[in-house]
Amino acid sequence: RILAGHESAVRTVAFSAEVDDGFLVTGSDDRIVCVWDTATGDFTSLVGHAGPIRAALFIPGSDSVASCSDDGAVCVWSLATKECCKTLVGHLDRTGRLACEPKGSVLASASWDRTARLWHWETGECLSILEGHAGPLVLVAFVSTDR
What is the 3-state secondary structure (H, E, C) of the chain? Predict the structure, then answer.
């Protein structure tokens, strides 16, 4: 199936962690995040970023999606209302990558401002700023210690 909806280059694609639900999130240079039903091809557009979308993901255990953009913001979107319910602000340059810890309570963002930030996405609180990098951050991830 071809999923057509963006008007510019797609920069990020992520499936929902819920294996059987068949949902996909994409982000594009058109500044739009789309949430797709892969069975039908229907999608919902989430609009609010002022720059190209660099990363988007489903937040585990919630009905929310997070996205980040060249505008430096991280948006948390409610899939129920299709609105940005939290804007996580603090990066001083474009924000290029996101990761969510497996339990879904902490979101990490990586930025060209040479920092990573840890967020409690439900409250919008910045829990920590990880500084000291020599250049822009292009990746962030959580490592599971479960064995």
Answer: CCCCCCCCCEEEEEECCCCCCCEEEEEECCCEEEEEECCCCCEEEEECCCCCEEEEEECCCCCEEEEEECCCCEEEEECCCCEEEEEECCCCCCEEEEEECCCCCEEEEEECCCCEEEEECCCCEEEEEECCCCCCCCCCCCCCCCC
